[in-house]
Amino acid sequence: MAQRDEKRKQRQLKRDIKRAGNKRRRQHLKRELERNPEEAAHTEFDFGRLSSETLNGLDQDATRRKEPDRASGTGEDDPSS
């Protein structure tokens, strides 16, 4: 049960970070549109500490594990054998 709670907290943290980062990104784009409409579509935004990139793939439970490739090593598709 504790593992589920921890996973739930991680998901909520990631949602909160993404929401805050997206809010700042929208505000940044809105300001750029007012200042420089021609270049607003090409503006870059740095999420900085509001990036959820570091939280990707932290939950390595059974639903996230990839099955090994069963076709590899059989030689069925290998024309050189």
Can you give keywords for this protein?
81 residues, mainly alpha, 1 helix, 42% helix, elongated
The share of residues in helices is 40-55%
Topology, number of strands? 0
Count of discrete alpha- or pi-helical segments spanning 4 or more residues: 1
Taking pLDDT < 50 over at least 5 consecutive residues as the criterion, the unreliable ranges are none
Summarize the main sheet.
none
Beta content comes to under 5%
Structural class: mainly alpha
Q: What's the N-to-C terminus distance?
A: 50 Å
Molecular shape: elongated
Query: What is the average per-residue confidence, as pLDDT, rounded to a whole number?
Result: 77
Order of secondary-structure elements = H
Radius of gyration: 22 Å
Give a description of the structure.
This protein is mostly helical and 81 residues long. The chain has a domain at 2-49. The chain contains 1 helix and no strands. The chain has one helix at 2-35. The longest helix is centred in the first third of the chain and has 34 residues, at 2-35.
